[in-house]
Specification:
Strand order of the largest sheet: 3-2-1-4-5-6
Radius of gyration: 14 Å
Largest sheet: 6 strands, parallel
Strand content: 15-25%
Helix content: 25-40%
Order of helices and strands: EHEEHEHEHEH
Shape: globular
Oligomer: single chain
Number of strands: 6
Distance between the termini: 38 Å
């Protein structure tokens, strides 16, 4: 059974970035992942649904979050949404765990594995994953 990678619309005020580009979606699909997006999630970043060829689209955000093996995000979803993820889900994004102890508790309660990208070491070897430098530009 393929891994389900989910991408939901960002809810932080003024956030226009997308955690998943059409090009990255294409690469995930080529690696046999199932990519599921909340309808319109890429639009604020200039990526209409039609550019995510091969992805599945849903309108039910709660059901999408509950089915995700991997959730990619720019900003963290609401704590209640994090707590509602399926047990063992992986969350990747700018999660700011230092800013909200309740967020960490929600991830722990849901038995999620979190990869807060802003906590990646800022080394030459990890430069390709350095979101702080890439987003500063």
């Amino acid at each position: 059974m393929p891994v389900t990678v989910a991408f939901v619309a960002e809810t932080a005020p003024g956030e226009k970035r997308a955690a998943l580009t059409p090009e990255t979606c294409k690469k995930l699909l080529a690696n046999q992942a199932r990519v599921v997006l909340e309808r319109g999630a890429g639009v604020p970043a200039g990526f209409p649904d039609s550019q995510y060829a091969g992805a599945e689209f849903v309108d039910d955000r709660a059901a999408l979050l509950a089915s995700a093996d991997v959730l990619v995000c720019v900003q963290p979803p609401a704590n209640a949404e994090l707590a509602a993820l399926k047990p063992g889900a992986i969350v990747i994004g700018l999660l700011a765990p230092h800013a909200d102890a309740a967020r960490v508790e929600a991830l722990v309660a849901g038995k999620a594995t979190a990869f807060p990208l802003e906590k990646l070491p800022r080394t030459t070897r990890a430069q390709a994953m350095d979101v702080l430098s890439s987003q500063a530009g």
